[in-house]
Structures are given as structure tokens and as C-alpha cells.
Design brief:
globular; alpha/beta; 16 strands; about 525 residues; four-stranded antiparallel sheet; eight-stranded mixed sheet; about 30% helix
Amino acid sequence: MQLAGGIAPQFKLIHRFIFMPYSSPNLLLITTDQQRGDCLGCANHPVVETPYIDELASNGSYMPFAYSSVPSCTPARAAIITGMDQWNHGRLTMTGNDALEYPATLPGELAKAGYHTQLVGKAHHAPQRRLYGFHHMVLDESGRRSDPNFISDYHRFFEQNKDGQYGYRDHSIDWNSWMARPSHLPEHLHPTHWTASEGIRFLENRDPSSPFFLWLSFARPHSPYDPPQSYWDMYADRQDIPKPFVGDWAESYGEPKADVNAPRSRRSDCEIRRARVGYYGNITFIDHQIGRLLYEFRQRDPDEFANTLIVFTSDHGDMMGDHHHWRKTYAYEGSARIPFIMSFPRDWNFDRDRQIEAPIELRDIMPTMLDAAGIDIPESVDGRSLLPIVQDPLVDWRKFVQGEHTTCYDHIHGMQYVTDGREKYIWFHHTGDEQFFDLSKDPGECFDLSKDPFKSDRLSFWRGRLAAINEKRGDPRGSGGRLIKQPEGAMSLSPNYIKWKDLAFEKENNRLQEDAVL
């Protein structure tokens, strides 16, 4: 069979023989929640400091054209764990809280191959303790409690270790608010510090006879924008905090709203600046905690550290006031583009400190890690291993990424998008409206070229690409080479979601019947 990325089996074996040692590498996946693709030092952000993440990039590759195809938490994490595109894993928006039985998962395939697998931090699974192939999970689920009996491991730790009569949320900032302030917690009780500490604990207690897969999943810089005081202070007095992008198409958009969680709201310069100070402080705090974990790992076992593939990314971005938008779910760069870095094991014969300008997506993580581990990539995986392209940027690769979100907090903003990192076409499937941006000249998406007669050929080109995808997968939004708007509403779950739900129900029913017989 063809393996992910279109690599024939015989080439795959030669590729591994030439470039990789026989010992299986450890696999460390580090994710943040809601971190913009431009908020890295190595991405030349004018303010944000990420020295440890930048060091990872210097030991591998930085991928500036990385995107989240469904830029919100649950569908993005489904792409990571299954390697599927959104039509195949089933979630086309932030919905669906059923137990699912996917044909294959990243931790499941690694566990079957002898890896010790662990998740630390935010999982956003349903049910919340469902393992999906992990041997164990230690969770920080923020305020989510899909089961009234669920208590996250972080909250249990917090209640056992706080030194006064205060609560985790006593700073009053909500989970999706544009408000910001320093955390009221001691630094060691902040969830970012706890996540790194639990990652270090796993590295100390893991099975030493097996390679490991650790998903270290930070719940910040997602709001609340509440870094410890010292990290707030790093940015509070900076005079160069960048102002948001506001496009010519957005000047009359976004009225001030008396809603602290408003996804679209025109805020004051002061409010936007405070939000960015808190957001940037959270990012640098995470970066320093990543550095802490890497230091402890290197000191404890330098050879194991040297044999570890590290991938750093985020599930989606944060608009941070761009075009009077907040939070995520949008096709715009602040929401859909994500940071993506790979740091290679010491003995891999790869070029380092390179920027690879190819359109990639979260679904590529699973095949990349399986490829690195020498494990066959399941046929259900739609992503492609990134290892060939980081060796040779001229290798045949996908031309673009297609993404969507059926609703973006309301009906009329539901969209699909296609981009190669240089141009972007956005189609609002409920209204038929469209936007087109030349990202190479306008990375802030301030100038909508969809009405420019000189761009009509490019619009037709991208429109046709999106229509072909919809038609091929059986989506009513595409037919006869044309995009078909959905004024009554587009589907939020594909038929595949129902299939995985039914499989999970059938498996659980069979288990209950077997238990009854026993």
C-alpha cells in the first residue's frame, strides 16, 4: 500500500536506513492552547520572547505555513490524535462530545509498538477520562466538567497545596474573556507550572526499558490572560506592544459590547494592550517552563534526551483584537495559523536551523511521529510525514491546506478557507460572501481583494479548488465544480462522526454483554 505522504514502502525503508539510527526515538509533543503563529521569537515577532522554543527551532526546522484546519480546541485535537482531515474524523466545528471509536490513534499505535504513552495537561476528550490509546493521562481541563463527578488532576493538586482561603478563579477573568491581569496565584500553583512539573514527574517515573511518547499539553496562553506577576511585568512597560491589524473591510465592523467574552467587539486601545501584555506574558512563562522540563530531562538522562524527537505547536491561534475579533474559529491568520517547530534527535543526519515553507496541518503530526518510530502508518491517516520534506524541501508536497468552521459563534460567519501560506481564499458558506488576501504582501489581511478585477482569475482558481474538495467528499457545499451556499445552515458533523460514535457504542455494548456472561 501507499504510505502517508505518498512514500512507497521500499523508499521509506531506504530513507530510514540512511538517515536514522535503528533505535526508536523518544517522542515529545509539546502543545500550547490558542497560540498565534506569529508569537514566537524565531517568527520575528517584535516583542514576544521565546528563547527555549527558538533553541528547539535551531536544532531542527521551523514551519511558518502551518495551519489548523478547524481552528478550535476539540476538532484540532481530533486531527492531532487521529491524523485525519476534518471530514474523516467528523468534526467540522466546535461540537460533538460523544465517545468515539476511531480506527487508529497516535498514542494507540505507539502503545501497540511498545511505547510508554502519557498525556499531561489539557486533553479535551469526551468522556474526559477516555484514554484513546494512552496508558495514562494527568489532566488540567480548566473549567470543563462534562461529568459532574469529574475533578481534574490540576484542581485536586491546587486544593491540596494552596496556602489560604482562595480559589483558582478568584481573579474573576473568564475562560474566553478579552480581559487581562496578573495571576493572583503563587507561581508554583499556576497551571502552566503544574503542567511542566507533571511532565518532569513522568520523565522520572517512566518505564526505562521502553521509548516514550509524552504529549505535554499546556492550557495557556488561552484566556484567562493571567501570567504570574513577573511575566506580566516583562511586557507591561513595553512601548512597542503591536497594535491589532484592522482591515479596510473591518473599519465599520464590531460594536463595543457589554460582554466580557464577546468574540467580536471593538475594545479600547488600553484594553487591547492589556490583553496582549497578559497573552505575551503567558507565552513566555510557558517557554520558560518548557526550558525547565528540557533541562531536567537532559540532566537526568542526556543520552535519552539526545534520542528524542520534539514537536512544538498549538491547536489554533487567537485573534487578539485583529479586525475587532477575539478568540478563535476564524479563517484569519491570527486564528488559523499556528506555530510549528521540529527538533531532531542528535544522531539524525538532517540539516538544522532551517525554515521549511510548505503548507502543513495538525494531521501531519501522527504520520511524522509514526514514521520516526518506524511504525506503519494506518490507512485511515490523511496527514503526511514531514520527515521527507525537512530533508528535501523540493520533495513533492501538498499545494495547499483546506479548513473550515461551520459556525463562528453565529450563523452568518460560518466559513471554509483554502491557503498555501501566500494567498488565502475565504468563503462564507451561509451567505455566499467571500474574501481574498495576498498574504505575501499583506500578512495582516487588511486588504480584501475579492472585488479586485485584476484578481478574478486567482479567485476562480481558489474557488474551484474548494468546490472540488467539497464535491469529492460528498459535501453539499460543492457540486458541478461550483460552491453551493447553504442559507439554511451547513452540517456541523460529517457522516463519519456518526460512524465512529456507533462503533464506540457497539464496542461498549459488547463489553457489557461479555461482563454479564462472566
